[in-house]
């Protein structure tokens, strides 16, 4: 085993106002990786550090963190028997109560490892669900977390039930004669999943109505997406003047937050801060959060916020784009409605920062990447201008004549459209204005019949 990180519990975050006091659980983090030709692309050390960050996000006391090379997969325990035996004395010495395996464990593997080490074992999905459970603040967020947790739990009802297990048949409300506890659990979980999905459908309908209202009011929507801890909430706060939780934490934002912001021309748009993504995000987790992620799918423009100071930045980019592909938010070749905010340039070495800025300044008018520091504000004005330019590209230019005396209509056109030229002739103002479909329809309704 390699890349051992010894920790003494001092690297914990400050508790937020929503956190509840609880004794920290002594934890070991294990990050398996395949060796040889089937080795993973992700840097094993960076992957381990991310796993530790996930554990620290819920105040676990990480005593030991190790990568575990896998020359071959062991069906019973995932990691080899020798590694299982070598790790056990370390756990006993450190008083470990929890082991996190930063990979996907089958129910059998999880149970076998718990028996071998005599401690609780969870895999990457289980850890992410724990974090989501702590971060969810709204009714919608809690529903989505519960749905994901139930889908996960339903596949793990493999406790050591035998033909001698206690039967609970004949009570009617729990099940018919001969129905075992595990069957009851599966049925009850299934019923709860159905109900949650119905509730989330109602949430989705409400969001659809709200989006329709924004379109009617001619408010385009910009969605911030990105790897967790890339700085989305810091950028959101910078753009909107809001006070969304923006800390150096994985999954600091779970529930979507929306605010109206003013673009350089004076037009308004709505900006949305969404849940961060991670590598190997389970399919059922993405599906559970689809109601929230609808805001990304339906957005007029997507801003992918990237942490360019992170050593694994390119792989993080690929992870986010894979989720967006799964959602149908972008196509294989990318998307014309997505630009990248290359965040945290303030944390780059001077030479790398200068190269990035030089490359950006020499780029085309339709550049897709914009170096910024959401923390200091550097580059944010250029990003805002690019956001407005992309939104304007979705509009259709038309010639409109308005009496100079009609100040209300002129002001409306400047507020809701992109006025590209204006010539005043006599008592009329002749304008070339780009309006999207919703604004054009609203303008027609304003005109006298």
UniProtKB/TrEMBL annotation:
UniProt entry tagged with the keyword Heme: no
Subunit structure: Monomer. Associates with the 50S ribosomal subunit.
Protein function: GTPase that associates with the 50S ribosomal subunit and may have a role during protein synthesis or ribosome biogenesis.
Location of this chain's protein in the cell: Cytoplasm
Region (Disordered): 1-45
Molecular-function GO terms, alphabetical: GTP binding; GTPase activity; metal ion binding; ribosome binding
TM regions (residue ranges): none
Major localization class: cytoplasm
Keywords: Cytoplasm, GTP-binding, Magnesium, Metal-binding, Nucleotide-binding
Entry similarity comment: Belongs to the TRAFAC class OBG-HflX-like GTPase superfamily. HflX GTPase family.
Pfam families per the UniProt record, alphabetical: GTP-bdg_M, GTP-bdg_N, HflX_C, MMR_HSR1
UniProt: Mg(2+) binding residues: 233, 253
Protein name: GTPase HflX
CDD domains on file: HflX
Segments forming domain Hflx-type G: 220-395
Gene: hflX
Gene Ontology CC annotations of this record: cytoplasm
SUPFAM superfamilies: P-loop containing nucleoside triphosphate hydrolases
Entry cofactors: Mg(2+)
Binding positions (GTP): 226-233, 251-255, 273-276, 343-346, 373-375
Basic and acidic residues composition-biased segments: 1-21
